[in-house]
Amino acid sequence: MPDFFFPAPPGHFPDPKGYFGAFGGQFVPQALVAAVDQVAAEYERAKADPAFVARFEDLLAHYVGRPSALTEVPRFAAHAGGARVFLKREDLNHTGSHKVNNALGQALLAQRMGKTRVIAETGAGSHGVATATACALTGLACTVYMGETDMRRQAVNVARMELLGARVVPVTSGSRTLKDAINETFRDWVAHVGDTHYLFGTVAGPHPFPAMIRDFQRVIGVEARRQLLERTGRLPDAAIACVGGGSNAIGLFHAFLDDPGVRLIGCEAAGHGVRSGKHAASLSAGEPGVLHGSRSYVLQDDEGQIQEAWSISAGLDYPGVGPEHAHLHDSGRAEYRPVTDDEAMTAFRLLASTEGIVPAIESAHALAGALRAGAELGPDALLLVNLSGRGDKDMDTASVHFGLEAAR
Amino acid sequence: MSPLTETLARAKREGRAALITYLPAGFPTVDGGIEALRATLDAGADIVEVGVPHSDPVLDGPVIQTADDIALRGGVRIADVLRTVREVHAATGKPVLVMSYWNPVSRYGIERFARELADAGGAGCVLPDLPVAESAPWRREAAKHGLATVFVVAPSSTDAQLAETAAAGTGFVYAAALMGVTGTRSTVDASAAVLARRLRAVTDLPVCVGMGVSDADQAAEVAGFADGVIVGSALVSPFLDGGEGLAGLERLTSRLAAGVRAHAG
């Protein structure tokens, strides 16, 4: 068995048509059917090919720096009802987030398919940076679409992508954020499908992306489960992660699906609160619908128009969510909780000041979820939190939020 | 024979392609859109497609997306789309199709949408992102209400997909002339004629070609190998910045109508 790459074991979703229960599927225009089918077929071959698996494992170990650390954070945990809290440190990966696991996997797949060009969308920039990095490493041309609003919020990451050789294209349509960047990337793909792979960034989109990206991210939970057992001799009471599209969360959750004693808690961005209308909590406040090629929970009006999402975190600012999360939500296996901007920023500052770790604002939503879960479960609880990324990219936002020196 | 099928058959008898015009409902306003669609039919179009404006029109280029945005900011609702269908059909008697991304139809309710569209005199629906494999519930309701279901195929579609799609569709097959999104192009892509020929081998349905057509010469060229020529973005442009509005729309439609007749006889 490979050490790092863990395709989902048999018996787990999706079904052959790409459905997780009632969610998923392949709602793409005919022009893209051949392309997504090619990705699906090539991925099936790749995951059974020892050479592909070996190359991926090698990169995860010697380029990404896996396994990532598991860090206990007692000073932070003192604010979480005294529960023991462990952080899975995806922020220590090369490029600073979990996104690199998937970007490398798909870049290798693009090479197998003989594609010479990769396109991607990005919100906060983490996926764009990971994709630009993977393309620099593998010699693939790279174009990244990014909402104009997000380019302003994440200027440092734009510069990083350009330095890595990627072309960053501002998207000025719609809400000028992640959702519109995805639309624009699909448009590019339709026009250039012959030589171009769409390196999708999260566990949403048409089949096979939700399952394939989950498999590339499943390493997070498999490592964390093993590390926690070694360190504490038991499984966590809850595994907690932030959920925008949901790739870091599914990567963590999947290793615990068959452990009924482990509560799976996804923290959605509630922005100014789910009743304010300014949020990104698709599972807490959305309805089933079709967006970006799959059926899942979506923020939409009563006539199927997609609503703009809001979060202080550009990375969670998405009006949909991966279909496997929709299934875990409806089946009750995972619970999804809204976390407001203010709660997330409180946890952001708390982790920095108690443990010397500056989390991504995305990940701070999971930390806020842990503070709440710890208070509910009490001092005997053992909590595992996925620290999906580091906060360097978010310093401008944080400086403004807290009125720090750089903001003045 | 349905009015849609009859219209396409009549054009064929006249030795020409039909002209199919597309505009989103609610653009530039609901009443303005009704007037514009009627004007294209009066100026020589045979069939119209009324677009359901969508927040995420992923198959459309910037021109139609801009029109959709204007319509949505103007507050267009599905009731307005249906009123557009009703009034355009009542005024002209010509076939009126609706083109919609799947989520608005699915969310509105498949049965309800089919029933209300048929009640409004609609001829059917073009559904560009509904996979054939997912389409059975819609097709059941559409058939019950006498509505055509038009699927869109692309140059990248395999022969098996073309056959499957054509077998599931009714009315006509919408062939995308090129790999890309809607919008005008300076030339007709060579892949359009190839795709039309591949479709002829697997279906007897009329083959209508759209995407990229913007002037009379292009319409004439496409009419040489297709049963229908579909024009959208070029008709939106007269209403955007610096356009000539309704007068420009009528002039362009007349030229396109002449274009599809260039090979007649």
Topology readout:
The complex is a heterodimer of chains A (408) and B (265).
Chain A: E1 19-20, E2 23-24, H1 30-47, H2 50-64, E3 70-72, H3 74-77, E4 84-89, H4 99-112, E5 117-122, H5 126-138, E6 141-147, H6 148-153, H7 155-163, E7 167-171, H8 178-191, E8 196-198, H9 209-217, H10 219-232, E9 238-243, H11 247-253, E10 263-271, H12 282-285, E11 287-291, E12 294-298, H13 323-331, E13 334-340, H14 341-355, H15 361-377, E14 382-387, H16 395-402
Parallel strand pairs in A: 4-14, 5-6, 5-8, 6-7, 9-10, 9-14, 10-13
Antiparallel strand pairs in A: 1-2, 3-4, 11-12
Helix pairs in contact in A: 2-4, 4-5, 4-9, 5-7, 9-11, 10-11, 14-15
Chain B: H1 3-13, E1 18-24, H2 30-42, E2 47-51, H3 62-73, H4 78-92, E3 96-99, H5 102-108, H6 110-119, E4 124-126, H7 136-144, E5 148-150, E6 152-153, H8 159-168, E7 173-176, H9 190-200, E8 207-210, H10 216-223, E9 228-231, H11 233-236, H12 245-260
Parallel strand pairs in B: 1-2, 1-9, 2-3, 3-4, 4-5, 6-7, 7-8, 8-9
